[in-house]
Design a protein that fits this description.
20 helices; binds N-hydroxyamidocarboxymethyldethia coenzyme *A; 3-stranded antiparallel β-sheet; Citrate Synthase, domain 1; mainly alpha
């Protein structure tokens, strides 16, 4: 497989670099840790390593050193499409180079071969209560596939440590291939007629997803799906879904166990669930204020939300300190394709008004929009209007980033994670000693 051979060729050099850091420079100090960081959710403690993506607080995400606009311009596209192959993005994340069209298509072909979801998974999903949250269904489906893990099987047969990454790559390909099928199945099971059409080997990941979802404008939605999955794929290693996947994977749990854990983290309102909450907030504004409001009305509505003790979803970020380039990319897409849509106009006005309100309130370190401030609006336009499904879409995209990371974590022999905890008294003693 193309990805296997490319990783294999790079591996000796990466292993040398990692070995040199671990053996020769292990005592070099990276940073200090403050009491504020220890009691404050470990913000900014530099303690994870990944070469797949990096979030610059003042600039946003770069995938393998490339900004979002650079990625969207450089990756090859299916004929007639506006957005690149998702397979090309997966290649970039795993290999660290922009693929040719043929290479991106080779990844797409691998996915098409592996997309079939075993019938028992669908049967299990169908047996769940009708009001089960779609994220629960997605996480369950991923866990149910664990039975097929090649890594788990080969590990128990005694595979050598150096080769762990190879069945992990197989698991990563098998899992990412099935995610859009499972997601579309969940959508149709919960909100439509149930069942999905078979994966079409002639179509790419994005087009297949649009077809399986059964939306009206398949071509437009295929481009949105490509954009959405690419933008949501990776956001360095410290965010909850990536970190939970990595943490669980560090026990040598396989890709399925690890990603199911990551999805459970993504389901939280402070993380992936914010996209459904954000659109809910926009629609609330629209309904209560009778359409696109005046700036003054919106200003007051935002303050009412804050005074009600709630956060404004889609705004703020733990690392970023500027508007999220993933927000900007989606807003540009919406403005280019359907600028007159009322929710797009409203989201744009919110972008104008809410940062000022958050600044006045003075609490949020970053008053700018994050990825979730607009993503639901785009789905809504294409007729995917079931809010609680939106985090599932995020999950499909996030699968790409965390799986690429898991493959490299195995390839470089990243160890079991085990940070140290202190008691409150110990912290107080440290403070007293510092004077
Ligand atoms: N509205 C109101 N208050 C906000 C706020 C917002 N959008 N963003 C931050 N604040 C508040 C925090 O609640 C916190 O208040 P307290 O001191 O009373 O606890 C204070 O400002 C400082 O927070 P911070 O340091 O700026 O932000 P954190 O790193 O703690 O949290 C969050 C980052 C993204 C969780 C936060 O900004 C938030 O809750 N935003 C709204 C929810 C959201 O959009 N989540 C999605 C984030 C992107 C993502 O991961 N997607 O998956």
């Amino acid at each position: 497989m193309i990805l296997h051979d490319k990783i294999s060729a790079q591996l000796p050099a990466w292993r040398e670099r990692m070995k040199s850091l671990a053996k020769e420079h292990a005592d070099v100090v990276v940073d200090q840790v403050t009491v504020g960081q220890v009691v404050g959710g470990m913000r900014d403690i530099k303690s994870l390593v990944t070469d797949i993506s990096y979030v610059d607080p003042a600039e946003g995400i770069r995938f393998r050193g490339m900004s979002i606009p650079e990625v969207l311009a450089a990756l090859p596209k299916p004929d007639g499409a506006e957005m690149p192959y998702v397979g090309g993005l997966f290649y970039l994340l795993l290999i660290g180079a922009v693929p040719t069209k043929r290479q991106a298509e080779a990844v797409e072909k691998e996915w098409a071969k592996r997309a079939k979801v075993p019938a028992y998974v669908f049967k299990m999903l169908k047996a769940m209560p009708k009001d089960t949250h779609p994220m629960t269904l997605l996480s369950q489906a991923v866990l149910a596939l664990q039975n097929d893990s090649l890594f788990a099987k080969q590990y128990h047969e005694g595979i050598k440590k150096d080769a762990y990454w190879e069945p992990t790559l197989e698991d990563a390909m098998n899992l990412t291939a099935k995610l859009p099928v499972i997601a579309a199945f969940i959508y149709r099971l919960k909100y439509k007629d149930g069942g999905v059409p078979k994966y079409d080997r002639k179509l790419d990941y994005g087009a297949n997803f649009a077809r399986m979802m059964g939306v009206e404008d398949e071509k437009g939605y295929a481009d949105l799906a490509r954009l959405y999955f690419i933008l949501h794929s990776d956001h360095e290693s410290g965010n909850v879904s990536a970190h939970a996947t990595h943490l669980v994977g560090s026990t040598l749990s396989d890709a399925y166990y690890a990603f199911s854990a990551g999805l459970n983290g993504l389901a939280g309102p402070l993380h992936g669930l914010a996209n459904q909450e954000c659109l809910g907030w926009l629609i609330d504004v629209h309904k209560k204020l009778g359409g696109v409001p005046s700036r003054e009305q919106l200003y007051q509505f935002a303050w009412d939300t804050l005074n009600g003790g709630k956060v404004i979803p889609g705004y703020g970020h733990a690392v970023l300190r500027v508007p999220d380039p993933r927000f900007t990319a989606q807003m540009s897409y919406a403005k280019a394709h359907f600028p007159q849509d009322e929710l797009v106009r409203l989201a744009d006005m919110v972008f104008d008004v809410v940062p000022a309100v958050l600044k006045e309130q003075g609490k949020a370190k970053n008053p700018a929009p994050n990825v979730d401030a607009i993503s639901g609006t785009l789905q809504y336009y294409y007729g995917v209007r079931e809010f609680d499904f939106y985090t599932v879409l995020f999950g499909v995209g996030r699968g790409l980033g965390v799986m690429a990371n898991l493959v490299w974590a195995r390839a470089l022999g990243q160890p079991l994670e085990r940070p140290k905890s202190l008691s409150t008294k110990m912290l107080e003693d440290i403070v007293a000693k510092a004077g």
